Structures are given as structure tokens and as C-alpha cells.
Amino acid sequence: MTDLEPDRSAIDELLDRAVSALNQGDRATADELAGRVLAVDETNADAEEVLAAPAGNGEIRRITILFADLVDSTELSTRIEPETYRTVVGRYRDEVLRIVNSYGGHIGNTKGDGLLAVFGHPHPHENDVVRAVQAGLDITRDVKRLSARVRQRFGFDISVRVGVHRGLVYLDTAQDDVYGFAANLAARMCSIADPGTVAVSEAVERLVRDNFTLEARPAVRVKGVDDPVVSFRPTAEREATPASTGPLIGREPELAAITAEWNDVVSGAKSLAAVAFRGEPGIGKSRLARAAVALAKRSNSVVLELLGSPLHTEVGLYPIRKLLERRCQIAHAASPQERLDRLTAELEARSMDPHALVPLLAPVLGVTPGEGYEPAAAEGNRLNAQIQGAIREYVIGCLADRPGLLLAEDTHWFDPSTLEVLHSLLQPDVGRGLIVMTSRELTSLRTSTAVQVFELGPLSHDETDQLITSLHPRMTARERNEVVRRCDGVPLYIEEVVAKIMEQPANAGDSVPVPDSLYEALFARLRSSENAMSVIQAAAIIGSRFDVGLLRSVVAMPDNQFDVVLTELRSSRVLEPTEDQSWRFRHELLREVAVELIPPSVRRTLHSQIADVLKSVSSQGDRNWPIIARHYERANRIGEAVSAYQRASRAARHVGALSDAMTFLSRALNLLDRLPEGRERHRREISLRLRHGFLVAAAEGPGSPVAAADFERCLELGGTDPLADELFATLMALFTYYVGRGDLRRSQKIVESLRVGVENGREWWLTENIGGSGTLAWLRGDFLDAKEQLEQAAELMKVRGQHDVEAEWFMPHDPVVLGLCGLAHARWIMGDLAGADEALERGAARIEELVFPQGPFSLCYLQFIEVWLRLEAGQYDRAVELAAQTRHRGEQHGFDQWTALGASLHAVAIAMSAMAIGDCDSPAVAGGIDAMLGWTAACRYVGALSFLTSFDGYAARLLIAAGRLEQACAQIDSGLALAKDTGMHYYDAELLRLKAATTEDPDGRSALLSSALSLSRKQHAPVFALRAAVDDYTLRGRAALPSLAEAVKELSPESTWPELAEAQALLAQAQSAR
Predict the structure, then answer these.
(1) Could you tell me if 357 and 391 are in contact, meaning their C-beta atoms sit under 8 angstroms apart?
(2) Mean pLDDT in the chain?
(3) What's the mean pLDDT in 618-639?
(4) In sequence order, what DSSP letters do the residues of 647-699 get, joined into one string?
(5) What residues make up the domain containing 524?
């Protein structure tokens, strides 16, 4: 194929998807896919059919079409009498109609002397394309015989051309007609066939090459088709369809039984052995049969094959006839005399009596008495018994006292007489032989102690995986899982679906349609019960597994009739019960075909009915809501689908399924464009985005840009009225987001805007408003103001009433917990360790009242604040324990932020613990440095800035301890620069103090400590002031005593801050040394 030629497999895949979309009522997708085909193959007729398909009750289907036409009928009509012409054409039509009907086809339309027949509608079969070609061959043969009679009576010849094609057509079930290019191409195939022959298209050749001998014909141009058309001429039926050549996997016991029985026959331990395999189509019966044949042929033993044919189930002794034709080397077109001659020669070669056996075997070959032999002297049942006896004698003669194999394949297609012959051969006097039988049904197998019967079941998951690997070692995990899901362990399905995947180009997308080679068989099984289609359709729309009660509620059918239909579908292997009291399609591929066949209007109605039934029995937290939502969506009831997805998200939240909860809200948001524009749609979008942003913030952290996009979209839709519910909720969510980003200016504006709402009907939120203001003051370094506001907020919490927080708060951490954590910050920086602990204890008590995700998320936040507190207080063991809990909880609930931060703080806490005992060279210190440098870099990258300067401080502490002073100084400078840019000065004093430790210049160090001390006092941060004073005393000695004494006095005498005791000890030591 050149670069300019279209990729045929890609085009076929796009067309399959287009047809599926069209039958699902998705006209836009069907047109788009058909357009993509035409973009690379501008003359593709199937794509044009999709675009031109009318809307109505018909169906777009791939179907097999046969067109037969008398050769030169117009010229003939001009030179013979009209009555003669009518008689001849009438006989011709009768022959064609008889043959088409005999193969299950349907003639719904005639065009002049041309007859168009469809195979697969209205009565489908598992091999309709084979039936159509076989019908075409029979038409040419029978018309040839008709021509001989016409010549004898009227003096002229007639001939017929037949064309067969399979493709897309529009089935107009009301008018019993077909439309489309495929029907026209079948007629064009007919026009290029030689008189007395059949021409089939490439589409047909791919599906029948194993059933017929085909000759490729030169490409020719035909009317209405731009490119030359390639055709094939079927010349004869193949004797047997080649079995799959794929690996034989998962059948070790059966293969062992065949081998053991054959070895016993060869060794003489047994004179006769019999093995039978029963199972559904595609399960591997023929593959085992071929393995038995290969085993016998390796021993150079005789192999006799009786092969059932679905086209000849009512033809007496047909498998015997084909056996005789193969053994006697009789061609299909052999004359009666040639048949007799070859039969006689075969009997003589076997040392059998032709005089006795020819009269009994010749009728089996279709040779009647009077064509070269005398009839047997018997009639009726007696004649039938003699014929069966002759057949038995012939089979025994073929074995000739040496080991041999008799294969009876597909005995469910054997006629009664052939079955009687087969059963008569299961006797010890037959000779030394192994009989292998296969069938879909036990009724056609002779079950006795002499026959080992194996019921073949589906392959296990591991066996399926092994088969897939052997067929396509490079298949992706996703493709492998799809094959397992769709094929249900049936080897043939696995092989065909894998082959379809291998044909697909890399850019073909995810969907792989049901392979053509399986489609007809699956479709025929679905249509095996005339009254079952409404039940099948409803079950297919419900899903692979379904509750019978739900199905019964959806199908408009009396209970007794429903039960009968369900029994029929179980008997025909379409549906089956499961162990959990539900039902399922026996194969997923059956359901896929069933769904494709449902007209779009019926499909939407079923989805609607199913959703209504499920909704009527579902509670608020029911797990059916995602299913209900999908059914409403496919029923085009978009408003109800959006509501159901929102309920599905809430139900998922309540069981801790955070990812599912986000996914359901995303689906709801994606549907909004299909609702009418207006205020109601905006209101619904705000509601959804607030909740979606809430969940994203839980997963990724409050600083998530995705969450911010949701909230800012709400701001865009909500207007400017601070009293409006949507705007109030949006602003509260954005406040937390902007704080996380270190955007104090916007955060302050939001606090001021929210105060208007608080003072006009939302007094319950006054606590959060004051607390938010206090949090901003703390971040700015206004610690005294921060503490006053946060203490006020904490007192208000104790006296306010209950409120539905969930209705207006869309952040994953609870507002009460946030306020108490802020209070803990305000207290510890004042040296009030006990007060900080009390605030955290109140926060922990509040968390016990919360559900997922706010409960676990808020606990992670509270533990982070406590880790910070323990690190500042030098309580490293507790910090290590808390950080590990935070990391574990983040992993457990899918909180990525807390997983990463918990791990980083755990490493830092271990490192600081090593520092505390003077082990600065410990690998733990290096690990802590790497963790904190990685975390600070990540925070800067994603813009999570609110606590970043304190993390810079932790990194600097570890770097200083490790002697990496220059790097520590750079880290500190980054923190100070960030503080200057954002106005977050809460950690400036500590950063200045740490920076003093990075320089060896005493004057420079003294100046930095003086700045740290001065800033600490200005900010009312006695803990930071105390640290700076201690460092200054260590540097300057007695000259710094006044500052140290003042710093100690700034802390409350009741303070339990650990560093206070160290400072007091230094003062006492200095005073005693005077």
C-alpha cells in the first residue's frame, strides 16, 4: 500500500463505529465518522450511505445480498412468443425462489427479470453469507438443468448470472425493501459474472474463503463505481472448513483422554474407544477433533470423517454421501456413470462385493436405479435398514483390521439416518478404531459407558490470558482486559477479537466492533425465539448483568408469558442465571450485537423506562445512581441525568470513593451544554462546580488550579450581589484558595465582601469571617491582632447554634477545624503551648462529627498543624508519629497533598531528632534535606505558597546543621523574597535568625540577630524573640544579657514552652557568675 492509499482496516473500523452510532440515535457522531472516511476515501459508498440514511423505523445493517438475472433476457423476449417467455421466466423465478427459500433467504423485491434476495433478514442464521453463495451456486446448476428442458421443449437455451455482496443497507421493514449502495453493488457483481457463474465481492470472499474454492477475477470498471471492482468466482464447495490453527490451551484433560484412548487402540488394549465433546459454538470442539485427526495421521492410520452441515440438515445421509465422494474421489459435477464407476472401483479396492453393495450405496450418492445398476430388492424401512447396513460394512472395510479414526463432527446437524448409522458403529465388532464425536447438544450423542463425554466450558482467566499472549504478545493491558471482558473465555471469540485488534491501525481508537466472522452466528442466536426480542432488547440496555425483577418491570408483557420467554432464552443459550440471583447474557458479544440492533427510538424509550424504575426504588445513598444517570443521559433526559449524577457523587463521597465522586460531577458538568441557556442552567452549573471544586481540592489540595477554575467560573456566573447564595458560597471557597496561593490582597477583599453577607442574614458565619480575618493577620505577622480575632472566633463557636455547613461551605477542611488550628498557631507563637494543645483537642473533637471527605481531610490538616507545633517545640518523637499518620491517611483516602507532605515532614522530623542528639552526619539529616528541598520546590512550582516560608526555614535548619551554609543562605533568601512579594511576614524573624548562622562575620551575624529580635518584638512573637535573644547571648555574651532577660519576661510565667527553661537557665548561670 502506498502512502497515498487509504488504510482499509482503519476505514472499516470507522464505518463500524458510524453504523453503531447511527443505530444508537447519535446522528452527529455517525456523520462525523462517515465524514472522516470520506476525507481519506472520497468515493467510499458505505460512508455515503451512512450520511444519506433516512430517519425512521428501519435499520442500518450489514447484510448479504444476492442478485440473480437471466442472461440476455431482453433480447430473448423479442424473438419468442410472450406466452412462452412468461412460462420460461416463471419457471426460472420459481427455481430461484425455491432455492433461496431452502437456504433461509428472502426475496422482497424484483427488478425486471432480476431477483434480489437478502440473507439474514427477517430470519437470520449463523452462516448467512455462506448460505447466499451456496444458493448462488445451486441457482446456476439448477438453471442449467432447466435450460436443457427449455431447449428440448422450446428450442432455445437460457442462462443466469448471480452476484453476491455483503455491506451496509437501509432495511425498510415496513415496505420489505432494501436501499443503498450494497444492493446496487450486488447487481453490479451479477453483471460482471460470466453466464452460468457466480461473482462475489471482496467483502464476501473474506468470509467464505474457507467454505468454497474461489478464483480471483481481473478488476473491471462497472457503472456507478469510480474504482475498478475486484470479484471472485466460487467454483465448488470445500469439503470441510479448516479448524482454527490457534494454540490448544486449557484442554489438557480432553487432549490426554484422546491420546490415551488412541494409544490403547493402537496397542490392542482396546478394540474400540469413543470420546465425545459437547459444548456451545466456538468453545473448541473442532480444535480437539483436529488434534485427534493429527494424532491418527502421525501414525499413518486411516481417518474417516462424517461432517455435519447446517445447510443440509434435512438431506438424508448427507454426511455419508460426502464421505463416499471423498473416498471415491467423485467431483461435484461428476455424471451418474462416473459416480458408479468410481464407487465400484473403491469397493473392489477394499475387497468388497460391488454387486451386493452398489445398489445400496449408489442412492446415497444421488445415482438412481436405471442409470447403470439394478435396484435393491427392498422398499421402505427394510431398504433403509439395508442401506445403513451397507454403510456400516463399508466403514468396517475401510478400517481393514488396522487402527483407524472415525470423526463424527457437528452431530447436531446430522439427519436421523446418519445418527442411526453412527450409533450402530459404536459396537465392538467394528474393528480397531477410535470414534471422536462433537456436538452442541447431548441428544445427538450416544451416551453410554463405552463413550467418554466431555462438557467443554469456557477458559479460565489465566487460560484466556495465556491464549491472548500466544496470539498477540504485544497486546496492551487495556486491550487484554477488554478481550477477557468481552469474550467470556470462548476460544473462537478470543481468537477473532484478537485478530480484529491486530488488524486495527494504531490510531483507530478504543472501540473494536464485533468481528464479521462472529456477527452472523451471534445475531442468529438472538433471533432464535420469535417472541423474545422485546425482552432481549430491554436486557441488553440494562447491561451485562441484570435483575429479573427490573427486567420484568420494564418489559410490557404478562408475567406468565415473560416466564416462558425467559425459559426459551435460557434454552437457546442467550441468557443464563448467575450465582448471585441475577441474570446475565451468556456472552458479552451477544449483548453488544443486541444493542446494535435496537432502533434509536426504542433504545431511548428503554433507557428512560429503566431509569424511572431504578429511581423509584433507590434511596439517597443508593449505589444505583450512576446507573440511573447513564440511562437518563442515553434517554436524552438531560436535566434528570444531571441530577442523578449529582446524587451519584454524593453517594460516592459517603463511602469514601473520592475519585468516583469527582468523575460523576464531571459527567454532569459535561451535560450542561445540552440544557437550555438561562438562569436555571447557570444555577445548576454553580452548584455542580462548587461541589466539583470541593472534591478536587480534597484530592489535590486547596491550592489546586483546577478547583480555582471551578470557583472562578462560579464567580463569573454568580453576579456581584454578596447576598446571593451562590456568590456567598463561591467567595468562601475562593478565600481558602487565595490564602493557599499566598494572595493576601484578594483574600482580604473577600473577607470584607463576605462581612456584608454575614451582617445581612448569615450571622452563623460571623465566626468564620472573624477567624478568616485573624488568619490573614497571622500570615502578615500581626500576631497580637491575629490572636485577638482568633480567640474571639473560638468563643463564638461555643455559643452559636447548629447550621447546615455543607450547603454553603465547599472546601474539604471544615471551617471550625480551620479556625481552631489558626488559634493553635496564634497561641504557640506567644509561647502558650498548653493553649495550643487545647485548641487542637477541640478541633479533634469536632472532626469526630464529620463525614468523608471533610472528616479525614480535616484530620490531616490538624495533624499537619500539630507536626509544625511539635517541630517548633522540639518534640520530635511526637512529630515523627503524627507525620507518619498523615502520610498513611493521605494514601488511604486519595489525598495526594497529604500523602506527599506527610512523607516530607516525616523525613524532616526524623532528621531533626538526629540533630537534637548531635548526630548531624546521620543519613537521616541528608534525607530530611532532600525531602524538604523537594517539597519547597514543588510548592513553588504549583503556587502553594501560604506556609512555604516556614518550610524554607526547616530546610535551612537542616542545611546549617549539615554545614551547607551557602545553600542554607540561598534558601532563606528565597523565603524572605517570597515574604516581601506576598506580604506573608509570619516567619521573617525566624528566617533572619537562621540567616545569622550562615555567616562567620560576627558583626554581620550580630546585625541579623538584632533585626530578628527587633522584628519579633514588633510582631509580638515572644517565641521568636526568645530564640533570637538566646543566639545573640551565645554570640556576644554578657553584652546581650539585657535583651535575653527582656525576652524571658515577654513570655508568661505560666508558659510551658520548652525553650523558656533553657533561656532561664542561661540567665541564672550568668547572674551567678557575677
Answers:
(1) no
(2) 85
(3) 84
(4) HHHHHHHHTT-HHHHHHHHHHHHHHGGGSPSSHHHHHHHHHHHHHHHHHHHHH
(5) 513-591
